[in-house]
Structure formats: C-alpha cells, structure tokens
C-alpha cells in the first residue's frame, strides 16, 4: 500500500537545504553508520532517512495507515564549540525538526509529519561520534481496492 522508498525520497528532498548549511550527507540509510570509525565519520555531519515501518487498521471500506520514519543525525560532537550554523548533532536535530515537524511533506493523502521521539543512539566523544535518532510519523486513509 505504501511505497517506503518514495516517501523517504520526499523527506530527503525536504531536507536538501541542509546541504547549503554544511551537511555533507543527506540520503536514505542503508548501513552507512556501520564499519570503521574513520570511514564512517568522513560523511559527517550527516542525516540519514529510513522508514521504520507501517501499521494498518481496517475501518469499514477504508484502511488507515500510520507510517513512521527514523531520521538519524550524525556528527563528530554533541555540541561543537564552532560558530558554524550546524555545529554538533544537537543543532542538527533541532534544524531537522524545524524542516519536518508539522509540515505536509508526503503529499495527499498523508497528514503532516510529527516528531514522536528524539534520543541518543551513540555518544562516544573520545571517538568523535554522536548519533541521535528522531522518529516521525504520518497517517493516511486509503480506500480498499483503490
């Protein structure tokens, strides 16, 4: 019912202006945070988008779909002491929220995206790795067979 890759691409397009703000990587997640630290951190600061799943509920002749996405924000530090606009992963998480939360990005019939949770996944200051995840969700109603 839902093509996750199409929805991920719409979110990535909505985040594309981050590239003008110093983000090196903004793409679908497919394991880029796995591997050797020097190779992983070459892509930082980075934002990765991944569909986290969908729940379907039947309501008479309609199917309600709730789709969730993980936005992974990665940088070398939690709060950098640099004067850069997006210095540190916490600034990056805030900027992603400004671009996504409450915005109608996925198109009809989806509701606006809403942030559900933000949390630390990895914080290893001695290795220069800080990764936050932010979970966003949207809902839609589809007619059965349509």
From TrEMBL:
It holds the Pfam family Phage_Mu_Gp37. This is Mu-like prophage protein gp37.
């Amino acid at each position: 019912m839902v093509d996750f890759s199409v929805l991920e691409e719409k979110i990535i397009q909505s985040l594309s202006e981050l590239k003008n703000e110093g983000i090196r990587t903004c793409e679908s997640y497919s394991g880029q945070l796995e591997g050797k630290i020097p190779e992983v951190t070459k892509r930082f600061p980075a934002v990765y988008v991944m569909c986290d799943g969908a729940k379907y509920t039947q309501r008479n002749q309609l199917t309600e779909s709730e789709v969730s996405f993980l936005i992974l924000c990665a940088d070398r530090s939690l709060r950098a002491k640099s004067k850069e606009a997006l210095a540190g992963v916490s600034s990056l998480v805030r900027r992603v929220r400004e671009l996504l939360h409450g915005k109608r990005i996925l198109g009809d019939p989806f509701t606006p995206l809403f942030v559900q949770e933000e949390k630390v996944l990895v914080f290893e200051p001695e290795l220069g790795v800080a990764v936050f995840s932010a979970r966003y969700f949207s809902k839609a109603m589809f007619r059965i067979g349509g």
